[in-house]
Amino acid sequence: MSRNVLIVEDEQELAKILKRHLEDLSCTVQLAFTGEVGLRLAESKPFDLMLLDIMLPGMDGLEVCRRLRARRVYTPVLMLTARASEVDKVLGLEMGADDYLTKPFSVAELAARVKAIFRRVDALSEQARDAQQPLRFGEALSIDPRSREVQVRGQPIALTHKEFDLLLHFAQNPGRVYSRTQLLDAVWGYSHEGYEHAINCHINRLRAKIERDSANPELLQTVWGVGYKFAPEGASP
After folding, report:
1. Could you tell me if 107 and 161 lie in one domain?
2. pLDDT per residue over 150-187, tens digit each?
3. Are residues 14 and 92 in the same domain?
4. What is the 3-state secondary structure (H, E, C) of 83-141?
5. Domain of 16?
6. What is the pTM of this model?
7. CB contact burial 218-231 (16+ within 10 A = b; e otherwise)
8. Total of domains in the chain
């Protein structure tokens, strides 16, 4: 199956090399060399994947990703950067990126990451087809997988792409305890060693949006020494 991929990379020779390698994976590839052009293209038509360099002239990749997610464009994003610090990686994931590659990287690593994202997208699509009916937990919470809308005690709330995926994963598996690594694998679709802090940030933001008191959570509970679980029986109406 052919996939449509957008590469946003200001190093034109690198962009062309990436294009050739993705075409070897049966992808149809379009190039953009600035963030502004990449943003316009990503909003103009659907893509199956976006390779997005962080260090772009003008609008950088983080801002492109932030604006896409704010406008409810959920194209999977694989960020490319020469910056290797954990802070930069977590920041990219926090902006809504699905994965992260640090330059220089091998063709094999690129192919592995791209294939992992495609597998994750296919799995999520299959789950969405199997779970079209809204999930309701009394008066406390309702989740509509089809429209990606969430209501808390009857009031709609805005979630980012990954916040919604994380909440839906919990809600589809109530009572099950997940470690941070398991949540990264399940929601991001790839083992992000060292990115566990991203889970903490997403959990904290979700709690701020869905809990009556985020300091004393009823729905997203911490299991000390292990991870987190979704406990709808603890929610107040």
Report:
1. no
2. 999 989 998 877 888 899 999 989 999 999 888 888 88
3. yes
4. CCCHHHHHHHHHCCCCEEEECCCCHHHHHHHHHHHHHHHHHHHHHHHHCCCCEEECCCE
5. 3-128
6. 0.68
7. bbbeeeeeebbbbb
8. 2
